[in-house]
Amino acid sequence: MSRIEITVPKKAMPKKDPVHPCPCQDRPVNLTFKTGTLTWLKEVGEAVEEGETVCEGEVEKKALEFTTPCSGILCEICIEDEEEFAYQEILGYIEDGKEQE
């Protein structure tokens, strides 16, 4: 099994608000020089699917969704709820369940 990082990307799309749609929700937020706070939607030990939202960040009053790079088990959280995150930081790790050769 291998551990795959969940990292803060250079750009992230804002979370869509179906009740109050806004054109700003269609533009990615550049995270290169910004920080935000994090909220986890999953807990360590929970199964996740590739592309599933595992945590949300708030940057400049915009909610962003961070997704998993692969399917597996959320095995570690590196930045806890309400802590600050920045570009390229590791948010957590997924154990992908694949045997290494």
TrEMBL record:
Per its UniProt record, what Gene3D superfamilies does this chain match? 2.40.50.100
List the GO molecular function terms: transferase activity
Q: Which UniProt keywords apply?
A: Transferase
Q: Name one Pfam family in it.
A: Biotin_lipoyl
Domain Lipoyl-binding, residue spans: 35-92
Top-level lineage group? Bacteria
Q: What's this protein's name?
A: Dihydrolipoamide succinyltransferase
Which organism's genome codes for this protein?
A: Robinsoniella peoriensis
Q: What is the lineage of its organism?
A: Bacteria, Bacillati, Bacillota, Clostridia, Lachnospirales
